[in-house]
């Protein structure tokens, strides 16, 4: 970019940029069920800090066509649990209309596929030179989030009181993690020494994240807010090579089979 | 070129001051000009263990504040050539330790001494941070029990992130473990952590194992560094550790229970 346009950019009262956010989706099956908010409350209380004021997208895809319910009241009850509904996806036409009137944004349905489409928006540098010639004024710059973030690799022991956060990526520790140390990653966590501290994978809510370790002696394990403390880990897995992941939304552990 | 050593642990009461006194004395006995500095401002103890409490006029903080010259505050040990003590203040607190002040004193000392040994206070606050900030080498004093090991682990993390060497991206502070108050019999009964258990968690080289010994308390009550007690196991173990520190290859002793004769076994059984 030329310096002239950089100056212009700096003087502009705004900047338009693309960004992607990780948000939780609240899949609504039976909004009229008397247990709906009791159960949601139980879930939220498991990790109150994680859920506090977290933006959520309401997914109405699985609602029956004929459903009738007060969407405004529903949204305020969700807000009462300190979740912030910001948008919705899917649902029967009347529900969609009601959602628009209470100020929710319609989000494109589907997740992974759509996300990738956004990320893969055409890179202006790779545009046909023809086209560039035809458009002498550059289009508003759209900064696109890098698809691949380099994995964070730690080779030194992670000592008590240390905290390592791999933001939007995976974390690999090739030595041991001491009791009182904390590993956080938005992606997966691998520990090739003994894991004696805390490990929280899928920290921003990715339920597909996993924890892999050579010797499981952890204080706390968590994937996307589903956690287990060392008391609940069980002697079958203690000091074993283990992977930790969500199986149908429940934190599960499997021994890693070594050949 | 003088070398700055910090004796630290995180946890209190594990034997930092005892070890500082013994270690400094051991280095001086081997002919190195050594000074040991008490960083535990407000809880002055080193002078007691070194037996020079009645000779303290000026202290470390006076020197930092420019109220006294370094030579006025340094106390020369009466027993050993080459050994000096820089006591601290009992009336001030850790805020009196400024980074610039500490650096000034250490710079001045390094012109004269081979080894500068900093006796750290417990904790990870100002006093401990100041004592380790300028260190080239750290001796981590740990007892064979979980809370002490965890605190040592924490202080190792602090050394790796908040020392001058870490902040300026220089060669990291070298680290060695001194396992104190080790009781091989209690270890055998499973009441204390084994040497290997501690090494597995801390993952630093072992400098020495000091056995639990009544000689330690006896020595500190009379103000004599325990290393001077040449008949006690603890004294011998400190002497070995100093040798290892200087690069000698010395086998670890006092890590397994001593063989008991029939007589002592009978005594124990009847007790």
UniProtKB/TrEMBL annotation, chain A:
It comes from Azospirillum oryzae. The gene is minC. Keywords: Cell cycle, Cell division, Septation. HAMAP family: MinC. The keyword Glycoprotein does not apply. Belongs to the MinC family. Residues 14-66 form the Septum formation inhibitor MinC N-terminal domain. Cell division inhibitor that blocks the formation of polar Z ring septums. Rapidly oscillates between the poles of the cell to destabilize FtsZ filaments that have formed before they mature into polar Z rings. Prevents FtsZ polymerization. InterPro entries: CAP/MinC_C, MinC, MinC_C_sf, MinC_N, Septum_form_inhib_MinC_C. The keyword Cell cycle applies. Interacts with MinD and FtsZ. Pfam families: MinC_C, MinC_N. Gene3D superfamilies: 2.160.20.70, 3.30.70.260. It comes from the Bacteria. GO terms for biological process: cell morphogenesis; division septum assembly; regulation of cell division; regulation of cell septum assembly. This is Probable septum site-determining protein MinC. Residues 153-251 form the Septum formation inhibitor MinC C-terminal domain.
TrEMBL record, chain B:
It holds the Pfam family AAA_31. GO terms for molecular function: ATP binding; ATP hydrolysis activity. Residues 2-159 form the AAA domain. ATP binds at residues 11-18. Signal peptide: none annotated. GO terms for biological process: division septum assembly; negative regulation of cell division. InterPro entries: AAA_dom, MinD, MinD_FleN, P-loop_NTPase, ParA/MinD_ATPase. Keywords: ATP-binding, Cell cycle, Cell division, Nucleotide-binding, Septation. GO terms for cellular component: cytoplasmic side of plasma membrane; cytosol. Gene3D superfamilies: P-loop containing nucleotide triphosphate hydrolases. Belongs to the ParA family. MinD subfamily. ATPase required for the correct placement of the division site. Cell division inhibitors MinC and MinD act in concert to form an inhibitor capable of blocking formation of the polar Z ring septums. Rapidly oscillates between the poles of the cell to destabilize FtsZ filaments that have formed before they mature into polar Z rings. Interacts with MinC and FtsZ. PANTHER family: SEPTUM SITE-DETERMINING PROTEIN MIND HOMOLOG, CHLOROPLASTIC (PTHR43384:SF6), SEPTUM SITE-DETERMINING PROTEIN MIND HOMOLOG, CHLOROPLASTIC-RELATED (PTHR43384). This is Septum site-determining protein MinD. It comes from Azospirillum oryzae. The gene is minD.
């Amino acid at each position: 970019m030329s310096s002239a346009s950089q100056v212009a950019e700096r003087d502009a009262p705004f900047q338009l940029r693309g960004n992607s956010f990780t948000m939780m989706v609240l899949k609504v099956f039976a909004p009229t069920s008397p247990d709906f908010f009791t159960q949601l409350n139980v879930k939220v209380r498991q990790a109150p800090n994680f859920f506090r004021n977290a933006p959520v997208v309401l997914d109405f895809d699985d609602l029956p066509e004929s459903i009738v319910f007060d969407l405004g009241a529903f949204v305020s009850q969700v807000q009462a649990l300190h979740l912030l509904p910001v948008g919705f996806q899917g649902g029967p036409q009347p529900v969609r209309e009601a959602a628009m009137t209470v100020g929710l944004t319609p989000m494109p349905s589907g997740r992974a596929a759509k996300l990738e489409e956004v990320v893969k928006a055409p890179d202006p540098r790779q545009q046909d030179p023809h086209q560039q010639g035809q458009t002498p004024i550059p289009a508003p710059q759209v900064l696109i989030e890098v698809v691949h973030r380099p994995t964070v690799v730690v080779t030194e022991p992670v000592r008590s009181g240390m905290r390592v956060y791999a933001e939007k990526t995976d974390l690999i520790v090739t030595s041991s993690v001491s009791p009182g140390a904390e590993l956080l990653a938005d992606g997966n966590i691998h520990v090739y020494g003994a894991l004696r501290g805390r490990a929280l994978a899928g920290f921003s809510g990715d339920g597909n994240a996993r924890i892999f370790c050579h010797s499981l002696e952890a204080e706390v394990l968590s994937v996307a807010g589903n956690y287990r403390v060392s008391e609940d880990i069980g002697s079958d897995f203690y000091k074993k090579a283990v992977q930790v992941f969500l199986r149908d939304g429940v934190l599960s552990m499997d021994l890693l089979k070594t050949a | 070129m003088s070398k700055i050593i910090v004796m630290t642990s995180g946890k209190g009461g594990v034997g930092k001051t005892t070890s500082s006194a013994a270690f400094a004395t051991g280095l001086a006995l081997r002919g190195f000009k050594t000074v040991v500095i008490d960083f535990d401002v407000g809880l002055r103890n080193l002078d007691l263990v070194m037996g020079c409490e009645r000779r303290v006029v000026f202290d470390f903080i006076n020197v930092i504040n420019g109220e006294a010259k370094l030579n006025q505050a340094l106390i020369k040990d009466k027993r050993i050539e080459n050994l000096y003590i820089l006591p601290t203040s009992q009336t001030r607190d850790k805020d009196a330790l400024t980074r610039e002040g500490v650096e000034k004193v250490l710079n001045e000392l390094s012109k004269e001494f081979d080894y500068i040994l900093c006796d750290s206070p417990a904790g990870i606050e100002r006093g401990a941070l100041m004592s380790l900030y300028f260190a080239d080498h750290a001796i981590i004093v740990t007892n064979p029990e979980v809370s002490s090991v965890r605190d040592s682990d924490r202080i190792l993390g602090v050394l790796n992130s908040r020392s001058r060497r870490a902040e300026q991206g220089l060669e990291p502070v070298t680290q060695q473990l001194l396992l104190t108050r080790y009781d091989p019999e209690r270890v055998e009964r499973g009441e204390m952590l084994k040497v290997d258990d501690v090494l597995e968690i801390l993952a630093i080289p072992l400098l020495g194992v000091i056995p639990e010994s009544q000689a330690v308390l006896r020595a500190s009550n009379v103000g004599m560094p325990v290393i001077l007690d040449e008949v006690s196991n603890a004294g011998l173990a400190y002497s070995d550790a100093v040798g290892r520190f200087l690069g000698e290859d010395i086998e670890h002793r006092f890590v397994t229970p001593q063989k008991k004769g029939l007589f002592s076994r009978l005594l124990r059984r009847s007790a």
